[in-house]
Specification:
Order of helices and strands of chain A: HHHHEEHHHHHHH
Strand order of the largest sheet of chain B: 6-7-8-3-9-10
CATH class of chain A: Mainly Alpha
CATH topology of chain B: Rossmann fold
Helix content of chain A: over 70%
Radius of gyration of chain B: 17 Å
Helix content of chain B: 25-40%
Radius of gyration of chain A: 19 Å
Order of helices and strands of chain B: EEEHEEHEHHHHEHEHEEHH
Number of strands of chain A: 2
Structural class of chain B: alpha/beta
Shape of chain A: globular
Mean pLDDT of chain A: 93
Largest sheet of chain A: 2 strands, antiparallel
CATH superfamily of chain B: P-loop containing nucleotide triphosphate hydrolases
Oligomer: heterodimer
CATH topology of chain A: ABC transporter involved in vitamin B12 uptake, BtuC
Chain lengths: 289, 237
């Protein structure tokens, strides 16, 4: 049981970080970024190239990954989402754009990095073993700690920095934020860059454990979307709860349902449908917290 | 200081403003009165840059501002307290006030303004770390006026500050507006449906009907004007 909970926390922390990026973009732009999973995969491949292929230090690889994805996010916002939002009256346009962007990124990844599963050398060797009750390789513990540190760092940034305050203000009341002098275009772009960066960082973290392959993008987008729906779209604590809940559900159900075959996600989807029928706004469905 | 000339604006081919010209001199409190839909809020949205006029010009301290973005206009010194207060509901009173100073950079000056605002509205000190959404309407109104003052405006635009506020607090807010105008030398453009209150605390006023200025003049005179009494003060007394 302890093992299951530890696995759940480990998964949940990664998921929460993915969901945070997605919910940030949604809160700021009212855009559901269906390409979020592809950004995560892209992050994984950038880290793979720099750390795995070129043999540079992992910290540097993670840093470059973060910057690369932030640039991708900023460019995508400025040249794709911003003009569409300005000229279209309908939310569907940005959804379609995001879905299209997902396919596009898939194609780019296929061209540049190929279709193979890629892994990188282990960060540290050794396994933590608590009396055979909890067994956890050290590198997983490190990645878990890094993910938690990123979550805390992101929350502190949103809470106490001037930029974070402006982003929260923009999410809560767009007009009022503008009246305080917040430049909507600039901060929209900042938010999008930050969201994409978070997705990329998770990719860079998880490539050291599970590796990365092209096919992970779509499912990750779907999972991120689920976490955000569980927690309530556009709410920071909601995204964290959503991520943790999905992480724990996955870890618990994978072990308890193992004997019934591969039905974990079937069960998760069915419970999500029932949950959303009862609470369509998720756990904390309100704009931005 | 502020000059609107022949402003025209329409939404979906329906005129919201027809050739509106308004002027405000430095140090003045000017009121815009009129019923719902008369175009008062449209004028404010045009001054702040949230809407762009279809024709006409807005000049502030001799510079045309009608092509500038909202954030540039804030930088120029025009700050609006929007209708319905528009607090950032899930942010603390402190963070709301600090958002008001978003366009400024000197930390010590911001701190001074914060102290001044908290002194002017002591209730905000008590609520300092509470979410703004949990405040009463009157408290929120004081907070958003304080938030606007944090930007150190030259011109303060107030959109319906008495709307949905308990009568006792309306008097308090009116007093605060007079003080801000006198003590901090901030010019004020006040939009109000509560015409009596607006005329009492302003120097001059423009009375609007369906998108154009019907009557204008000194507020004290307008209070005595029969047409104003009949149309804007409900006829009584």
């Amino acid at each position: 049981m302890e093992q299951i909970l530890v696995n759940g926390a480990y998964l949940g922390a990664q998921y929460a970080l993915i969901a945070l990026g997605l919910t940030l973009i949604f809160a700021l732009m009212n855009v559901m970024n269906f390409a979020h999973g592809q950004m995560y995969v892209l992050g994984g491949f950038v880290t793979y190239t720099i750390y795995g292929q070129l043999g540079m230090p992992y910290a540097l690889a993670l840093f470059v990954t973060a910057i690369t994805l932030a640039v991708v996010g900023a460019v995508v916002e400025k040249f794709l989402f911003r003009p569409v939002i300005k000229r279209s009256q309908r939310d569907e346009s940005t959804m379609l754009l995001a879905a299209g962007l997902g396919f596009f990124l898939d194609a780019v990844i296929l061209l540049v990095f190929g279709e193979k599963q890629r892994g990188v050398p282990k960060l540290i060797n050794g396994v933590f073993n608590w009396d055979f009750r909890v067994i956890m390789p050290y590198d997983r513990i490190l990645i878990f700690a890094l993910a938690v540190a990123c979550i805390i760092g992101f929350m502190l940034f949103m809470q106490y920095s001037k930029t974070g305050r402006a982003l929260r203000a923009l999410a809560q009341d767009r007009d009022a934020a503008q009246l305080m002098g917040v430049d909507v275009d600039r901060y929209g772009m900042t938010g999008f860059a930050l969201g994409a960066m978070l997705a990329g960082i998770v990719g860079g973290l998880l490539v050291t454990i599970t590796g990365v392959n092209l096919g992970m993008g779509g499912p990750t987008s779907t999972k991120a979307f689920m976490m955000v729906m569980i927690g309530g779209a556009g709410v920071i604590p909601g995204a964290i709860f959503g991520g943790l809940i999905l992480g724990f559900m996955e870890s618990i159900l994978l072990s308890t349902l193992a004997s019934y075959g591969d039905i974990t996600y079937l069960v998760i989807f069915v419970s999500l449908m029932i949950f959303l029928a009862i609470r369509p706004n998720g756990l904390m469905g309100k704009p931005w917290g | 200081m502020l000059k609107l000339e022949n402003i025209e604006h329409y939404y979906d081919h329906v005129y919201a403003l027809k050739k509106v010209s308004i002027e405000l001199n430095e140090g003045e409190t000017v009121a815009l009165i009129g019923a719902n839909g008369a175009g008062k809020s449209s004028i404010l949205r045009i001054i702040t840059g949230l809407n762009k006029p279809k024709s006409g010009t807005v000049t502030f301290q001799g510079k045309a501002i009608n092509k500038m973005s909202p954030s540039q206009i804030v930088q120029a010194g025009i700050v609006m307290v929007p209708e319905g207060r528009r607090v950032f509901p899930y942010m603390s009173v402190r963070d709301n006030l600090l958002m008001g100073a978003f366009s400024r950079s000197s930390k010590t000056e911001i701190k001074n303004s914060l102290d001044q605002v908290l002194e002017r509205f002591p209730i905000l000190q008590e609520r300092y770390n509470q979410s703004a959404g949990t405040l009463s309407g009157g408290e929120q109104q004081m907070m958003v006026i304080g938030r606007a003052l944090m930007a150190k405006p030259k011109l303060l635009l107030l959109d319906e500050p008495s709307l949905g506020i308990a009568p006792k607090l309306v008097a308090e807010i009116a007093r605060a507006i007079i003080q801000i105008n006198k003590e901090e030398k901030v010019s004020v453009l006040l939009v109000e449906q509560n015409s009596r209150m607006a005329l009492r605390i302003s120097h001059r006023a423009y009375a609007m009907t369906t998108g154009s200025v019907a009557i204008s003049g000194k507020s004290a005179d307008l209070l005595e004007d029969d047409r104003i009494r009949a149309a804007y003060l409900g006829g009584e007394v």
